[in-house]
Amino acid sequence: MYFWLNTSELEMQQPTEDRFRHRDLNWLYFNERVLQEAEDKLNPLFERIKFLAIFSSNLDEYFRVRVSQLRQMKRVEKSIRKKLALKPNRLTKQILKEVKEQQDRFGAIYTMQILPELAANNIHIVDSEHFTKEQQDFTNTYFTDHVKKHLEIKKVDLSKENDLFLDNAMIYFLITFDNENELGVVNIPVDQCGRFVYFEHGKNMLTYLDEIVRSELPCLFPKDNITGIYEIKLSRDAELYIEDQYEGVLAEKIYESLKQRTDGQPTRLLYDAAMPKAVQKKLRHLLHLGKIDMMPGGKYHNFKDFLSLKDPTNNPELHFGEHPPIAHKILENSTDYFKSIKEKDQLVHFPYMSFQYVERFLDQAVKDDHVTHIKISLYRVADNSPLTSSLLEALEKGKEVTVFVEAKARFDEENNIIWGRKFEEKGANVIYSFPKIKVHSKIMMISRQEGKESVNYSYIGTGNFNSDTSKIYCDHALFTANPKLTKEMARLFMVLEGELIVPREKHLLISPFSTRQKFTTLIYNEIENARMGKKAKITAKMNSLEDYEIIDLLYKASKAGVEIRLLVRGFTCLIPGVEGLSENIYITSVVDRYLEHGRIYLFENDGDELMFFGSADWMNRNLDRRIEVVTPIYDRDIFEELKDILTIQLSDNVKARIQDAGETNQYVKPGKDEHKNRSQYAIYDYLKQKHNI
Fold this sequence. Notes:
Blueprint: H1 7-13, H2 23-39, H3 45-73, H4 78-83, H5 88-120, E1 124-125, H6 133-147, E2 153-157, E3 171-177, E4 182-187, H7 190-193, E5 196-198, E6 205-208, H8 209-220, E7 226-236, H9 250-257, H10 260-263, E8 266-272, H11 277-287, E9 294-297, H12 337-343, E10 346-350, H13 356-367, E11 371-378, H14 386-396, E12 400-405, H15 413-425, E13 429-431, E14 438-439, E15 442-450, E16 453-461, E17 473-480, H16 483-496, E18 509-511, H17 515-531, E19 537-542, H18 548-560, E20 563-568, E21 585-590, E22 595-596, E23 600-603, E24 610-614, H19 620-624, E25 626-632, H20 636-650, E26 656-658, E27 666-667, H21 679-690
Parallel strand pairs: 1-6, 8-9, 11-12, 12-13, 14-25, 17-22, 19-20, 20-21
Antiparallel strand pairs: 2-4, 3-4, 3-7, 5-6, 7-8, 10-17, 11-15, 15-16, 16-17, 18-25, 19-23, 21-26, 23-24, 24-25, 26-27
Family: Belongs to the polyphosphate kinase 1 (PPK1) family.
Active site: 440
InterPro entries: PLipase_D/transphosphatidylase, PP_kinase, PP_kinase_C_1, PP_kinase_middle, PP_kinase_middle_dom_sf, PPK_C_dom2, PPK_N_dom, PPK_N_dom_sf
């Protein structure tokens, strides 16, 4: 494992004063909002089940990344930890306490709400204790034909010195016997067999794969008397620590290090709470874990598998209603995107509109003989998408293609690098990550020869070039031929290609070069206007708010009388509504059908409003350690459209939660004469009317 820890970075991450929340603790309140969606009967049954799966998946990643980082902090020299006020053990205990409460709530939702409602809709998940003779015969055959060949059956003799290795995030059965010096371990092969098995006989009846394996365990250990069966799952460290001085192509280093995803340091053992303490102790010693690494759970783990649960009734009332993509009033019928974009900037919104507009733009560029260059940054590459196919076709047609592949996009490193190699093999200029810098921007530039001049067309988005995530992530994207923006985009790509050191931008905000400085100037401008009695307001929407310098500026603005209205989907280190500090700051968070992912920044500027959107949150990494692009909005129609969307979200009183000092996640309630506003649905209706063609 390559271990790298920058103490100056740690210092930035640690809340040293009462005016900052700890990001890792506040993140848990974001995940609680996901859990609230599983409880909310406004959501159809199968959508609530999906929210349980998302909650579980989020928590797994949290332990693999954030909690693993806390464990790495324990390796920092004690004197340095003391100087930086690092207290990883105390923080971990706080995290585990909150997670335990949330998991108890999770279990109650599943057993007291979801299972009874499934049964009420004639959908039954049967456990092995209640298999009928017919069901048992079916599962016996299914086990023999499909499951048994994928099992790894281990027996551990505790009287001898033994180690046990468990694969990351895989579920196993731990089996106890009359002989207390022995333990059995059997994997549950979900990857090969799926998590749910539907019975051939018995309408709408299914079971867990776990239950099929459980029912066969006596046959797997025929000479032993089984006394207990407990499901367990181990989460391992998912971070890749790359040393600054590591030489060579960073992509190669990461590719070689991906095995750490499966054999990294353990960060959490989730076990059936019914497991006796004596058995817990044996297991803990066998896996070389501390007490703090042990987390009691329910009978089943890996609820993220519920994302694959199918509705055997095909009842539309158990799912969200259809939201057909809205046709863009200009791009939908345009046969020449270059002409349409040159005449006027064009804005698209996902998932309300189709990602095909991006794919068509690139497809037209590939087929256009006047297009000479295509340059694009890829953060999360989709498998075999029209976009990647178009890039390969462009290479076949002899066009110059430059692809910047982010080799450090967490959990997508391997896929990104595989695609990078494919592009290289076809002749593309492929550039991989730089040490300590991620390219997180979502940008594309097409160069087209028009007469005697080369004209650049740019795409700037808040979301990845991924058609799958575009169906569930709320994002915005701008197509523009505005020379003020495209000229600076061209210089940014020259920076990425190593031809320039800095992009020298005046319009775009580009991290790590100018974004922090520009936002600082904009906030100070609002402070000065407030002090002079002018109109002063800051409205911003983002995924997360963590940067202490920006937060301190917002506190200063609040004290000066600037009205600050924030939409923060995820965690925030800012504490709003505190007298004498942040009483003019009000924050809400919207968690609903789609994942809010856009970033929009609006400054009052004494009535002459300034708006920006792009890929950067107000986080230290987005401002200082990533290549990010945030664009000003110069087109007046687009400005008003984005502002309308922002206003709709600010007025949400159905799915918005208040982020207050007490971290209560209370829902915003409509006033006495106020109509209900579920913003994602209202935005869909707004865009449908706005783009009615």
